[in-house]
Design goal:
Layout lengths: L2 E7 L8 H5 L1 E7 L12 H23 L3 H18 L6 H9 L6 H20 L6 H11 L13 E2 L9 E2 L6 H14 L4 H15 L6 H15 L10 H7 L1 H11 L6 H40 L8 H11 L2 E2 L1 H8 L3 H13 L4 E2 L10 E2 L1 H12 L12 H4 L11 E2 L3 E2 L2 E2 L3 E2 L12
Antiparallel strand pairs: 1-2, 3-4, 5-7, 6-7, 8-11, 9-10
Helix pairs in contact: 2-12, 3-5, 3-10, 3-12, 3-16, 4-5, 5-6, 5-9, 7-8, 8-9, 8-12, 10-12, 11-12, 12-16, 14-15
Length: 439
């Protein structure tokens, strides 16, 4: 039976805080083993789960019917950026793109996010392929934090506060983690629940167990995508779930807190949490539809821009590389395409001529880097958009082209107030709002 355990802490006279020097007690949580309790949901929640499953399957079918490398690549990166953001690890999409090709040139937080991209990709590939094993979970966390020893924690961990005595939440003791994770993997592999319900429960139980010293939030959200992929709901992309969670971070934390019921109050706690989680999945699925449209527009415009060039030409290979790496240098292209530096520089020039690359701006303007603004804007859209946020104008050429077929020139600034001052996103006309501020 789930319960809160009060743990006494003796005074630590060498402690760094007054609470540690005084001693006291804290509460740590012992969740139910999933194998020992039913996952009983109210009819209304089950109906909600069925509706969300249908929407996910419809989106998955759309993505499978028209697989786009640009969509999968950018969706995966934007989801990784948002998931890291929830943990306080923040970097711009351009910083992350720079970190992909050079650890030295980008902030360390961007390098952490690049590792998160690799971990999420591995989670989807490995966990999405069949039965889960402990080694799979360890590997994902180790990719995030390679300096951590593989395996589950043995020490006490907590969330919030400066120590156990003033923490917001204290997880089960280290000696019980293995048995809790045995139970979680058995549930994930044998429960037979609707995938959206399975993903919700697996995520909440994983975050409650908190099996690692660090990286639990990012691994836990990657598990959700793995469940969807393994069930065949989404193949060829990921939904921006972390963006939906980040847009309601307090509600997300409150939902996880509500899941940690006491005694036999599982049914109301589970129904409340699952229903809230389904709302986030529903919002992310709707946003993914806008994202797919914007990605398709980029794909079509880029292919049209290089139409007429031989299919096996280096320019097409460079285009595929830019989709994965929206900030590049001539040296980077030369190394990855096995070309001479001179030939790579010519490719950069060609991509600039057709409007795919521009010289890097901002703090990278003095570096030999070039950026694909369409991809960077799409990344920003994926990491910040909500259900009602329309796609950026420069990503939907068919809807925004002038009568002569030309695209709007973005020469004005949005100017809407933000926490960092007036918004500096470019718009085609004075007084026009950018994609982030249009409603």
């Amino acid at each position: 039976m789930a319960s809160w355990e009060r743990v006494d802490v003796s005074p630590d006279f060498a402690g760094t805080t007054r609470a540690e020097r005084r001693g006291g007690s804290y509460l740590r949580y012992h969740p139910d083993l999933l194998a020992s309790v039913p996952t009983t949901l109210d009819p209304a929640v089950l109906e909600h789960a069925a509706d969300v499953s249908t929407a996910l399957a419809r989106l998955g079918g759309r993505l499978s019917a028209n697989p786009l490398p640009v969509l999968y690549s950018i969706a995966l990166r934007s989801e990784s950026i948002s998931s890291s953001w929830i943990e306080g690890i923040r970097a711009t999409p351009r910083d992350v793109a720079v970190a992909q090709i050079s650890d030295d040139a980008a902030p360390h937080t961007a390098t952490e996010i690049v590792r998160n991209v690799a971990a999420m990709k591995d989670a989807i590939a490995v966990l999405g392929a069949g039965a889960w094993e402990h080694e799979h979970i360890w590997r994902i966390q180790h990719q995030l934090l390679p300096w951590h020893q593989e395996g589950y924690r043995s020490d006490q961990v907590w969330i919030g506060g400066t120590n156990k005595l003033n923490a917001d939440y204290a997880a089960p003791p280290g000696e019980l983690v293995q048995s809790y994770m045995d139970d979680l993997l058995e549930y994930a592999n044998t429960s037979g629940e609707l995938p959206v319900v399975l993903a919700a429960v697996v995520h909440a139980q994983f975050e409650t167990i908190h099996p690692f010293a660090d990286g639990n939030g990012r691994v836990g959200r990657a598990l959700v995508h793995a469940v969807f992929h393994r069930a065949g709901l989404i193949d060829g992309g990921v939904i921006p779930l972390s963006t939906a969670l980040r847009n309601d971070e307090k509600g997300y934390i409150a939902a996880l807190t509500d899941y940690r019921y006491d005694g036999q109050d599982r049914a109301p706690a589970l129904n409340s949490y699952v229903d809230r989680f389904l709302t986030y999945v529903e919002a992310a699925t709707a946003t993914a539809g806008h994202f797919a449209e914007a990605a398709t527009a980029v794909h079509d415009r880029w292919r049209a821009a290089v139409a007429g060039v031989r299919v096996d030409a280096a320019l097409h290979h460079a285009l595929d590389l830019v989709i994965e790496n929206p900030v590049v240098s001539a040296t980077f292209l030369a190394g990855h395409l096995n070309l001479s530096l001179r030939r790579a520089e010519k490719l950069v020039g060609q991509l600039q001529q057709v409007g795919i690359l521009t010289p890097a701006t901002g703090k990278y303007r003095r570096s030999p880097l070039y950026q694909a603004n369409d991809i960077l804007t799409l990344l920003s859209f994926g990491t910040e958009a909500g259900v009602r946020t329309p796609a950026p104008e420069q990503l939907t050429s068919a809807a925004t082209a002038y009568r002569d077929g030309s695209l709007p020139v973005l020469v004005h600034r949005c100017g809407e107030p933000t926490s960092q001052g007036p918004c500096r996103n470019r718009v085609p006309e004075a007084g026009r709002k950018c994609w982030r501020h249009r409603t």
